[in-house]
User: What shape does this take?
Amino acid sequence: MRCEEFLGLIFVTLNAATPPLREYLKGLEPGLETVLMGDGDCQLLGYHKTIIDANWKLYRDNDGYHTPLLHKAFTWLNWQGGKGSQIITEHGHMAVTADLKPLSDTGVLNDPSLLEFKAAIRAGGEGPQAKTAVIVVSPGTLISKALDLPIIRYALPKGVDRTEIHWTFIAHRNDDPEMLQHRIRQANMMGPSAMISLEDAAVFNRAQKATATQPPNTRFVKGYRPGMNLAEAGQNDEVGNLAWWDLYRRQMGFERGVA
Assistant: This one.
């Protein structure tokens, strides 16, 4: 067993063939620094668990780019992601990073402070606090920063069509009481009965049912062009999933199907 650490995250492997951690995470460092607030000096806020009636691979495939498509409440607040990029690595990981853009007070919320980017404002709109990121560390670890809330999730398979998601919420060790309370309030948006988790669970279940259609199946991959370099993927493309699926196929010993 080997154990290594990156910005406070502890990684453990039982496989002697696993490369050193820095090599394994190569390309993800900027995104991880964004989520872990630059220095990894974090403290635990708490945990949530949710169940979705879908395969774990469906969950990890759709995490990076679905927010503006699914969570329509954000459109009521005139929110959209800022300029960003997608990074795809040889180990099947991917990272989507973007600049934060503040939400507008459109009168929809009685208390719009719930969705404020307080950390970004305090940082003067510069540095890791002024960015957002969604990182998928293969096979099923998802590390992200939603609004002002750093989150680490683990997708644990409970069956072919059932996955348990473990959420870990963190804060910076230097947060004052006001910032801690702000992050806790935002964590409640992700809970088992909260808007985001309810919408995710419903749509993942529908997507799972759609995968059960009789073959031949056709899958559209947004942003893909025949012969393209996967490193050219756009911020909201699905292309990043292809590198992971190819790696998964080889690791499982599956033959490539005929297109």
Q: What stands out?
A: The mean pLDDT is 82. The beta strands are 2-6, 9-13, 42-52, 84-88, 94-99, 131-137, 141-146, 149-159, 162-172. The longest helix spans residues 195-210. The first strand starts at residue 2 and ends at 6.
